[in-house]
Design a protein that fits this description.
This protein is α/β, with parallel strands linked by helices. The protein has helices spanning 20-29, 71-78, 83-86, 116-132, 143-168, 189-198, 217-225, 269-277, 282-286, 349-356, 382-394, 412-427; strands at residues 12-16, 34-38, 50-53, 56-59, 87-91, 94-98, 101-104, 209-213, 230-232, 240-243, 246-249, 254-255, 257-260, 289-300, 307-309, 317-321, 337-344, 364-377, 398-400.
Length: 429
Protein backbone atom coordinates (compact mmCIF):
# COMPACT_ATOMS: atom_id res chain seq x y z
CA UNK A 1 0.00 0.00 0.00
CA UNK A 2 2.93 2.34 0.51
CA UNK A 3 2.88 5.23 -1.90
CA UNK A 4 -0.54 4.35 -3.30
CA UNK A 5 -3.30 6.93 -3.13
CA UNK A 6 -6.33 5.48 -1.44
CA UNK A 7 -9.43 7.28 -2.71
CA UNK A 8 -12.26 6.88 -0.24
CA UNK A 9 -15.62 6.96 -1.95
CA UNK A 10 -17.81 9.63 -0.40
CA UNK A 11 -21.06 8.57 1.25
CA UNK A 12 -24.14 9.54 -0.74
CA UNK A 13 -26.80 11.76 0.86
CA UNK A 14 -30.16 12.61 -0.69
CA UNK A 15 -31.86 15.79 0.49
CA UNK A 16 -35.59 15.89 -0.16
CA UNK A 17 -36.69 19.48 -0.73
CA UNK A 18 -34.97 22.62 -2.02
CA UNK A 19 -36.36 25.19 0.42
CA UNK A 20 -33.93 27.13 2.61
CA UNK A 21 -33.49 24.03 4.84
CA UNK A 22 -32.56 21.69 2.01
CA UNK A 23 -30.28 24.24 0.33
CA UNK A 24 -28.50 25.00 3.59
CA UNK A 25 -27.85 21.41 4.65
CA UNK A 26 -26.72 20.48 1.13
CA UNK A 27 -24.15 23.28 1.21
CA UNK A 28 -22.99 22.31 4.69
CA UNK A 29 -22.44 18.67 3.71
CA UNK A 30 -21.30 18.92 0.11
CA UNK A 31 -17.55 18.87 0.80
CA UNK A 32 -17.69 15.63 2.81
CA UNK A 33 -20.53 13.81 1.05
CA UNK A 34 -21.92 13.35 -2.43
CA UNK A 35 -25.17 15.27 -2.03
CA UNK A 36 -28.20 15.31 -4.36
CA UNK A 37 -31.33 17.39 -3.80
CA UNK A 38 -34.72 16.16 -5.01
CA UNK A 39 -37.37 18.86 -5.46
CA UNK A 40 -40.92 18.00 -6.48
CA UNK A 41 -41.67 21.43 -7.93
CA UNK A 42 -40.16 22.71 -11.18
CA UNK A 43 -38.58 25.64 -9.34
CA UNK A 44 -36.40 25.64 -6.24
CA UNK A 45 -37.08 27.67 -3.10
CA UNK A 46 -40.13 26.21 -1.35
CA UNK A 47 -41.83 28.95 0.66
CA UNK A 48 -39.30 31.59 -0.37
CA UNK A 49 -40.10 31.32 -4.08
CA UNK A 50 -40.85 34.47 -6.10
CA UNK A 51 -41.79 35.16 -9.70
CA UNK A 52 -42.15 38.24 -11.85
CA UNK A 53 -45.64 39.40 -12.85
CA UNK A 54 -45.78 42.32 -15.29
CA UNK A 55 -42.09 42.65 -14.41
CA UNK A 56 -42.91 43.28 -10.74
CA UNK A 57 -41.69 40.83 -8.08
CA UNK A 58 -44.34 38.61 -6.51
CA UNK A 59 -43.35 36.72 -3.35
CA UNK A 60 -45.83 33.92 -3.79
CA UNK A 61 -45.96 32.99 -0.10
CA UNK A 62 -45.54 36.32 1.67
CA UNK A 63 -42.75 38.90 1.59
CA UNK A 64 -39.56 37.36 2.96
CA UNK A 65 -36.80 39.41 4.58
CA UNK A 66 -33.67 38.11 6.27
CA UNK A 67 -31.91 38.69 9.55
CA UNK A 68 -30.55 36.70 12.45
CA UNK A 69 -29.33 37.30 15.98
CA UNK A 70 -26.92 34.38 15.61
CA UNK A 71 -23.43 35.41 14.47
CA UNK A 72 -22.66 31.94 13.07
CA UNK A 73 -25.76 32.09 10.89
CA UNK A 74 -24.88 35.58 9.68
CA UNK A 75 -21.26 34.69 8.93
CA UNK A 76 -22.30 31.59 7.01
CA UNK A 77 -25.06 33.41 5.11
CA UNK A 78 -22.87 36.35 4.11
CA UNK A 79 -20.15 34.01 2.83
CA UNK A 80 -22.47 33.51 -0.19
CA UNK A 81 -23.18 37.17 -0.90
CA UNK A 82 -21.66 40.60 -1.21
CA UNK A 83 -23.71 42.17 1.57
CA UNK A 84 -23.22 45.80 0.49
CA UNK A 85 -23.44 45.31 -3.26
CA UNK A 86 -26.29 42.81 -3.34
CA UNK A 87 -28.51 43.66 -0.36
CA UNK A 88 -30.21 46.66 1.17
CA UNK A 89 -30.46 47.01 4.92
CA UNK A 90 -33.71 48.52 6.12
CA UNK A 91 -35.35 49.40 9.39
CA UNK A 92 -38.78 47.95 9.93
CA UNK A 93 -41.53 50.51 9.67
CA UNK A 94 -44.49 48.40 10.73
CA UNK A 95 -47.90 49.86 11.49
CA UNK A 96 -51.28 48.72 12.72
CA UNK A 97 -54.34 49.80 10.79
CA UNK A 98 -57.53 50.71 12.65
CA UNK A 99 -60.35 52.28 10.69
CA UNK A 100 -60.04 55.50 12.68
CA UNK A 101 -56.21 55.69 12.73
CA UNK A 102 -52.89 54.06 11.89
CA UNK A 103 -50.55 53.48 14.80
CA UNK A 104 -47.02 52.09 15.25
CA UNK A 105 -46.14 48.43 15.84
CA UNK A 106 -45.85 46.78 18.30
CA UNK A 107 -49.01 48.21 19.79
CA UNK A 108 -47.78 48.13 23.40
CA UNK A 109 -44.98 50.59 22.52
CA UNK A 110 -47.40 52.99 20.82
CA UNK A 111 -50.09 53.44 23.45
CA UNK A 112 -49.55 57.20 23.15
CA UNK A 113 -51.13 57.01 19.68
CA UNK A 114 -54.36 55.47 21.01
CA UNK A 115 -57.50 57.22 22.14
CA UNK A 116 -57.49 58.51 25.74
CA UNK A 117 -60.57 56.41 26.55
CA UNK A 118 -58.53 53.25 25.79
CA UNK A 119 -55.34 54.37 27.52
CA UNK A 120 -57.17 55.06 30.77
CA UNK A 121 -58.04 51.35 30.88
CA UNK A 122 -54.77 49.99 29.55
CA UNK A 123 -52.40 51.65 32.04
CA UNK A 124 -54.11 50.40 35.25
CA UNK A 125 -54.31 46.92 33.70
CA UNK A 126 -50.58 46.91 32.95
CA UNK A 127 -49.76 48.18 36.44
CA UNK A 128 -51.92 45.45 38.00
CA UNK A 129 -50.05 42.84 35.93
CA UNK A 130 -46.75 44.26 37.17
CA UNK A 131 -47.96 44.24 40.81
CA UNK A 132 -49.47 40.78 40.77
CA UNK A 133 -46.93 38.98 38.57
CA UNK A 134 -49.70 37.35 36.51
CA UNK A 135 -47.55 37.58 33.37
CA UNK A 136 -45.36 34.58 34.24
CA UNK A 137 -45.83 31.73 31.72
CA UNK A 138 -46.51 29.22 34.51
CA UNK A 139 -49.58 31.26 35.41
CA UNK A 140 -50.96 31.04 31.85
CA UNK A 141 -52.93 28.02 30.66
CA UNK A 142 -52.79 28.82 26.94
CA UNK A 143 -51.73 31.44 24.36
CA UNK A 144 -54.90 33.51 24.94
CA UNK A 145 -54.17 33.57 28.67
CA UNK A 146 -50.59 34.55 27.96
CA UNK A 147 -51.67 37.52 25.84
CA UNK A 148 -54.37 38.63 28.25
CA UNK A 149 -52.14 38.22 31.31
CA UNK A 150 -49.29 40.12 29.69
CA UNK A 151 -51.11 42.97 28.02
CA UNK A 152 -54.39 43.27 29.92
CA UNK A 153 -58.00 42.88 28.83
CA UNK A 154 -58.26 46.08 26.78
CA UNK A 155 -55.24 45.50 24.52
CA UNK A 156 -56.24 41.85 24.19
CA UNK A 157 -59.70 42.79 22.94
CA UNK A 158 -58.52 45.64 20.76
CA UNK A 159 -55.63 43.92 19.00
CA UNK A 160 -54.19 40.61 20.22
CA UNK A 161 -57.36 38.53 20.09
CA UNK A 162 -58.72 39.68 16.71
CA UNK A 163 -55.32 39.67 15.03
CA UNK A 164 -54.32 36.22 16.26
CA UNK A 165 -57.75 34.84 15.49
CA UNK A 166 -57.36 35.93 11.89
CA UNK A 167 -53.83 34.60 11.61
CA UNK A 168 -54.33 31.24 13.31
CA UNK A 169 -58.03 30.82 12.40
CA UNK A 170 -58.67 29.69 15.95
CA UNK A 171 -59.41 31.28 19.33
CA UNK A 172 -56.04 32.04 21.04
CA UNK A 173 -57.33 30.20 24.14
CA UNK A 174 -57.20 27.02 22.05
CA UNK A 175 -53.51 27.43 21.21
CA UNK A 176 -50.99 25.69 23.45
CA UNK A 177 -48.42 27.87 25.16
CA UNK A 178 -45.80 25.11 25.18
CA UNK A 179 -44.30 25.95 21.80
CA UNK A 180 -44.50 29.73 22.03
CA UNK A 181 -42.59 30.08 25.26
CA UNK A 182 -39.10 30.62 23.88
CA UNK A 183 -40.21 32.28 20.66
CA UNK A 184 -42.16 35.30 21.88
CA UNK A 185 -40.27 38.29 23.18
CA UNK A 186 -41.45 38.44 26.79
CA UNK A 187 -43.02 41.87 27.34
CA UNK A 188 -42.04 43.78 30.43
CA UNK A 189 -44.40 46.40 31.84
CA UNK A 190 -41.59 48.73 32.87
CA UNK A 191 -40.14 48.53 29.33
CA UNK A 192 -43.57 49.15 27.78
CA UNK A 193 -44.10 52.31 29.84
CA UNK A 194 -40.58 53.52 29.15
CA UNK A 195 -40.91 52.95 25.38
CA UNK A 196 -44.11 54.99 25.39
CA UNK A 197 -42.80 57.86 27.45
CA UNK A 198 -39.45 58.08 25.67
CA UNK A 199 -40.94 57.00 22.32
CA UNK A 200 -38.20 54.43 21.88
CA UNK A 201 -38.22 52.03 18.94
CA UNK A 202 -38.36 48.32 19.67
CA UNK A 203 -35.08 46.74 18.51
CA UNK A 204 -35.06 43.27 20.05
CA UNK A 205 -37.26 41.50 17.51
CA UNK A 206 -35.26 39.72 14.84
CA UNK A 207 -36.81 41.69 11.97
CA UNK A 208 -36.75 45.16 13.56
CA UNK A 209 -34.05 45.73 10.96
CA UNK A 210 -33.51 43.39 8.06
CA UNK A 211 -31.64 42.63 4.86
CA UNK A 212 -33.31 42.29 1.50
CA UNK A 213 -31.79 41.46 -1.91
CA UNK A 214 -31.56 44.42 -4.29
CA UNK A 215 -32.78 42.19 -7.11
CA UNK A 216 -35.01 39.11 -7.11
CA UNK A 217 -36.22 39.00 -3.49
CA UNK A 218 -35.89 35.75 -1.57
CA UNK A 219 -35.68 33.79 -4.85
CA UNK A 220 -32.27 35.42 -5.30
CA UNK A 221 -31.20 33.87 -1.98
CA UNK A 222 -32.40 30.41 -3.04
CA UNK A 223 -30.77 30.72 -6.45
CA UNK A 224 -27.41 31.75 -5.04
CA UNK A 225 -27.42 28.98 -2.43
CA UNK A 226 -28.18 26.49 -5.19
CA UNK A 227 -24.93 27.21 -7.08
CA UNK A 228 -22.65 24.18 -7.23
CA UNK A 229 -25.36 21.87 -5.88
CA UNK A 230 -26.71 18.83 -7.68
CA UNK A 231 -30.47 19.53 -7.80
CA UNK A 232 -33.14 17.54 -9.61
CA UNK A 233 -36.33 19.55 -10.01
CA UNK A 234 -39.70 18.08 -10.91
CA UNK A 235 -38.51 15.06 -8.90
CA UNK A 236 -41.02 14.16 -6.20
CA UNK A 237 -39.85 11.45 -3.84
CA UNK A 238 -42.82 9.18 -3.22
CA UNK A 239 -41.08 5.98 -2.21
CA UNK A 240 -38.27 5.43 0.25
CA UNK A 241 -37.20 1.85 0.92
CA UNK A 242 -34.61 0.66 3.35
CA UNK A 243 -32.38 -2.03 1.87
CA UNK A 244 -29.24 -3.90 2.86
CA UNK A 245 -27.19 -1.73 0.52
CA UNK A 246 -28.67 1.57 1.67
CA UNK A 247 -31.82 3.64 1.22
CA UNK A 248 -33.45 3.66 -2.17
CA UNK A 249 -35.53 6.56 -3.49
CA UNK A 250 -38.43 5.90 -5.87
CA UNK A 251 -37.01 2.38 -6.39
CA UNK A 252 -33.98 3.81 -8.17
CA UNK A 253 -30.86 5.41 -6.71
CA UNK A 254 -29.46 4.16 -3.41
CA UNK A 255 -28.13 6.53 -0.73
CA UNK A 256 -26.42 6.10 2.63
CA UNK A 257 -28.51 8.77 4.31
CA UNK A 258 -31.68 10.73 3.56
CA UNK A 259 -32.55 14.20 4.83
CA UNK A 260 -36.26 14.88 4.57
CA UNK A 261 -37.40 18.54 4.56
CA UNK A 262 -40.94 17.91 3.29
CA UNK A 263 -44.13 17.63 5.32
CA UNK A 264 -43.89 15.02 8.07
CA UNK A 265 -47.56 14.13 7.49
CA UNK A 266 -46.69 13.07 3.95
CA UNK A 267 -43.77 10.75 4.64
CA UNK A 268 -43.90 7.81 2.21
CA UNK A 269 -45.97 4.80 3.35
CA UNK A 270 -42.96 2.53 3.94
CA UNK A 271 -41.49 5.07 6.37
CA UNK A 272 -44.80 5.42 8.19
CA UNK A 273 -44.96 1.62 8.52
CA UNK A 274 -41.51 1.60 10.00
CA UNK A 275 -42.49 4.32 12.47
CA UNK A 276 -45.60 2.36 13.47
CA UNK A 277 -43.47 -0.73 14.12
CA UNK A 278 -41.30 1.34 16.40
CA UNK A 279 -44.32 2.55 18.36
CA UNK A 280 -44.43 6.12 17.01
CA UNK A 281 -47.84 7.80 17.06
CA UNK A 282 -48.24 8.02 13.27
CA UNK A 283 -51.95 8.88 13.33
CA UNK A 284 -51.05 11.73 15.71
CA UNK A 285 -48.44 12.96 13.23
CA UNK A 286 -50.91 12.70 10.35
CA UNK A 287 -53.43 14.76 12.33
CA UNK A 288 -51.04 17.70 12.83
CA UNK A 289 -52.75 20.93 11.81
CA UNK A 290 -51.34 23.61 9.53
CA UNK A 291 -52.75 26.79 8.06
CA UNK A 292 -52.46 27.79 4.46
CA UNK A 293 -51.88 31.32 3.21
CA UNK A 294 -53.57 33.11 0.32
CA UNK A 295 -51.70 36.05 -1.17
CA UNK A 296 -52.93 38.78 -3.44
CA UNK A 297 -50.20 40.64 -5.28
CA UNK A 298 -51.25 44.26 -5.95
CA UNK A 299 -50.15 47.62 -7.15
CA UNK A 300 -50.55 50.22 -4.42
CA UNK A 301 -50.19 53.94 -3.84
CA UNK A 302 -46.72 54.77 -2.62
CA UNK A 303 -46.02 54.86 1.12
CA UNK A 304 -43.08 54.16 3.44
CA UNK A 305 -44.53 51.24 5.42
CA UNK A 306 -42.97 47.76 5.49
CA UNK A 307 -45.75 45.74 7.16
CA UNK A 308 -49.32 46.90 7.89
CA UNK A 309 -51.23 44.73 10.37
CA UNK A 310 -55.00 44.52 10.02
CA UNK A 311 -56.64 43.34 13.25
CA UNK A 312 -60.16 44.61 12.61
CA UNK A 313 -62.90 42.33 11.28
CA UNK A 314 -63.90 44.59 8.35
CA UNK A 315 -61.52 42.52 6.19
CA UNK A 316 -60.38 38.89 6.14
CA UNK A 317 -56.83 40.02 5.30
CA UNK A 318 -54.47 40.03 8.27
CA UNK A 319 -51.60 42.06 6.89
CA UNK A 320 -50.19 43.89 3.90
CA UNK A 321 -46.50 43.49 3.15
CA UNK A 322 -45.20 46.41 1.09
CA UNK A 323 -42.58 44.41 -0.80
CA UNK A 324 -42.27 47.27 -3.31
CA UNK A 325 -40.67 49.31 -0.51
CA UNK A 326 -37.99 46.67 0.13
CA UNK A 327 -36.31 47.23 -3.25
CA UNK A 328 -37.19 49.55 -6.16
CA UNK A 329 -36.46 46.73 -8.61
CA UNK A 330 -39.56 44.96 -7.29
CA UNK A 331 -41.72 47.64 -8.97
CA UNK A 332 -39.94 47.62 -12.30
CA UNK A 333 -43.11 47.11 -14.34
CA UNK A 334 -45.20 49.62 -12.40
CA UNK A 335 -45.47 53.38 -12.14
CA UNK A 336 -46.79 52.93 -8.60
CA UNK A 337 -45.52 50.49 -5.96
CA UNK A 338 -46.37 46.86 -5.15
CA UNK A 339 -47.48 44.90 -2.11
CA UNK A 340 -48.86 41.56 -1.03
CA UNK A 341 -52.12 41.23 0.87
CA UNK A 342 -51.99 38.16 3.10
CA UNK A 343 -54.92 36.02 4.20
CA UNK A 344 -54.94 32.93 6.39
CA UNK A 345 -56.58 29.92 4.79
CA UNK A 346 -57.95 29.53 1.30
CA UNK A 347 -59.59 32.53 -0.36
CA UNK A 348 -60.19 32.40 -4.08
CA UNK A 349 -58.82 35.10 -6.38
CA UNK A 350 -62.19 36.87 -6.81
CA UNK A 351 -62.71 36.81 -3.03
CA UNK A 352 -59.29 38.38 -2.45
CA UNK A 353 -60.01 41.04 -5.10
CA UNK A 354 -63.23 41.95 -3.30
CA UNK A 355 -61.30 42.28 -0.04
CA UNK A 356 -58.68 44.48 -1.72
CA UNK A 357 -61.38 47.11 -2.36
CA UNK A 358 -61.83 47.44 1.42
CA UNK A 359 -58.16 48.13 2.06
CA UNK A 360 -56.15 51.36 1.97
CA UNK A 361 -53.82 52.29 -0.92
CA UNK A 362 -56.12 52.00 -4.00
CA UNK A 363 -55.00 48.43 -4.59
CA UNK A 364 -55.01 46.99 -8.10
CA UNK A 365 -54.73 43.18 -8.07
CA UNK A 366 -52.07 41.66 -10.35
CA UNK A 367 -51.95 37.98 -9.34
CA UNK A 368 -52.84 35.57 -6.56
CA UNK A 369 -51.49 32.41 -4.97
CA UNK A 370 -52.65 29.88 -2.41
CA UNK A 371 -50.12 27.86 -0.42
CA UNK A 372 -51.86 25.05 1.47
CA UNK A 373 -49.07 24.72 4.08
CA UNK A 374 -47.49 27.80 5.49
CA UNK A 375 -48.00 27.98 9.28
CA UNK A 376 -47.58 24.95 11.51
CA UNK A 377 -49.92 24.68 14.49
CA UNK A 378 -48.55 22.82 17.49
CA UNK A 379 -50.22 21.42 20.55
CA UNK A 380 -48.75 20.14 23.79
CA UNK A 381 -47.96 16.67 22.33
CA UNK A 382 -46.27 17.82 19.15
CA UNK A 383 -42.69 18.05 20.39
CA UNK A 384 -42.76 14.59 21.96
CA UNK A 385 -44.28 13.01 18.83
CA UNK A 386 -41.69 14.59 16.54
CA UNK A 387 -38.86 13.55 18.85
CA UNK A 388 -40.08 9.92 18.81
CA UNK A 389 -40.24 9.96 15.02
CA UNK A 390 -36.83 11.61 14.75
CA UNK A 391 -35.14 9.02 16.98
CA UNK A 392 -36.77 6.08 15.19
CA UNK A 393 -35.82 7.40 11.73
CA UNK A 394 -32.25 8.28 12.61
CA UNK A 395 -31.60 4.63 13.51
CA UNK A 396 -32.16 3.98 9.79
CA UNK A 397 -30.20 6.94 8.42
CA UNK A 398 -33.24 9.13 7.75
CA UNK A 399 -33.14 12.66 9.22
CA UNK A 400 -35.86 15.29 9.60
CA UNK A 401 -35.09 18.96 8.93
CA UNK A 402 -37.10 22.14 8.39
CA UNK A 403 -40.37 23.83 9.12
CA UNK A 404 -42.71 21.01 8.12
CA UNK A 405 -40.50 18.00 8.81
CA UNK A 406 -39.76 19.14 12.37
CA UNK A 407 -43.10 20.97 12.68
CA UNK A 408 -41.38 24.08 13.99
CA UNK A 409 -42.31 27.71 13.54
CA UNK A 410 -38.93 28.43 11.90
CA UNK A 411 -37.98 31.62 10.14
CA UNK A 412 -35.20 31.26 7.57
CA UNK A 413 -32.48 31.95 10.16
CA UNK A 414 -33.89 29.31 12.49
CA UNK A 415 -34.07 26.81 9.63
CA UNK A 416 -30.37 27.55 8.97
CA UNK A 417 -29.57 27.01 12.67
CA UNK A 418 -31.40 23.68 12.56
CA UNK A 419 -29.31 22.68 9.54
CA UNK A 420 -26.14 23.52 11.50
CA UNK A 421 -27.30 21.21 14.31
CA UNK A 422 -28.01 18.43 11.84
CA UNK A 423 -24.62 18.89 10.14
CA UNK A 424 -22.94 18.50 13.54
CA UNK A 425 -24.98 15.40 14.28
CA UNK A 426 -24.30 13.75 10.92
CA UNK A 427 -20.66 14.79 11.02
CA UNK A 428 -20.16 13.09 14.36
CA UNK A 429 -22.06 9.89 13.53
C1 LIG B 1 -46.25 34.08 5.00
C2 LIG B 1 -44.87 33.76 5.48
C3 LIG B 1 -43.94 34.79 5.63
C4 LIG B 1 -42.66 34.49 6.09
N1 LIG B 1 -41.77 35.50 6.20
C5 LIG B 1 -40.49 35.23 6.59
C6 LIG B 1 -39.52 36.27 6.63
O1 LIG B 1 -39.79 37.42 6.30
N2 LIG B 1 -38.27 35.94 7.03
C7 LIG B 1 -37.90 34.66 7.37
O2 LIG B 1 -36.73 34.44 7.72
N3 LIG B 1 -38.81 33.66 7.33
C8 LIG B 1 -40.08 33.91 6.96
N4 LIG B 1 -41.00 32.89 6.87
C9 LIG B 1 -40.57 31.53 7.21
C10 LIG B 1 -39.85 30.82 6.06
O3 LIG B 1 -40.67 30.82 4.92
C11 LIG B 1 -39.51 29.37 6.43
O4 LIG B 1 -38.76 29.33 7.58
C12 LIG B 1 -38.69 28.66 5.38
O5 LIG B 1 -39.01 29.03 4.09
C13 LIG B 1 -38.87 27.15 5.58
O6 LIG B 1 -38.04 26.47 4.67
P1 LIG B 1 -38.02 24.89 4.60
O7 LIG B 1 -36.95 24.54 3.64
O8 LIG B 1 -37.93 24.32 5.96
O9 LIG B 1 -39.45 24.45 4.02
P2 LIG B 1 -40.06 24.71 2.58
O10 LIG B 1 -39.74 26.04 2.10
O11 LIG B 1 -41.48 24.29 2.66
O12 LIG B 1 -39.27 23.66 1.64
C14 LIG B 1 -39.61 22.30 1.53
C15 LIG B 1 -39.37 21.87 0.10
O13 LIG B 1 -39.52 20.46 -0.01
C16 LIG B 1 -40.19 20.15 -1.22
N5 LIG B 1 -40.79 18.82 -1.05
C17 LIG B 1 -41.72 18.46 -0.13
N6 LIG B 1 -42.01 17.15 -0.25
C18 LIG B 1 -41.23 16.66 -1.25
C19 LIG B 1 -41.09 15.38 -1.84
N7 LIG B 1 -41.78 14.31 -1.41
N8 LIG B 1 -40.20 15.23 -2.85
C20 LIG B 1 -39.47 16.29 -3.30
N9 LIG B 1 -39.60 17.55 -2.78
C21 LIG B 1 -40.45 17.72 -1.76
C22 LIG B 1 -41.21 21.29 -1.34
O14 LIG B 1 -41.68 21.42 -2.67
C23 LIG B 1 -40.38 22.49 -0.87
O15 LIG B 1 -39.69 23.07 -1.96
C24 LIG B 1 -42.30 33.16 6.42
C25 LIG B 1 -43.23 32.13 6.26
C26 LIG B 1 -44.50 32.42 5.80
C27 LIG B 1 -45.48 31.31 5.62
Amino acid sequence: MTGANIIMKKERIAVIGSGISGLTIANLLKESYEVTIFEKEDEIGGLIKCKRVHDCLFHQVGGHVFNSTNKKVLDWFWSFFDKDAEFVKAKRNAKIYFTDRIIGYPIEDHLFELDESKVTHIIPELLAIHRNGTDQPDKCADFGDFLQNNFGATLYKLYFKPYNEKLWQINPHHISLAWLKDKLPMPDVQQILQSNILRQEETKMVHSSFYYPKEGGSQFIANRLSHKLDIRTGAAVNRISLQESGISLNGMDVYNKIIYTGDIRSLPASIKDLLKKRGVNVSGLEALRSNGTSNLFCETDKNDISWLYLPEPFTKAHRIVYTGNFSDTNNRGSERSTCIVEFSGKIDYEGMCREAKLLPGNLTPLAGNYEPNSYVVQDSNTHAMIQDARHALELHGVYLLGRFAEWEYYNMDKAIEAAFRLRDKIGSS
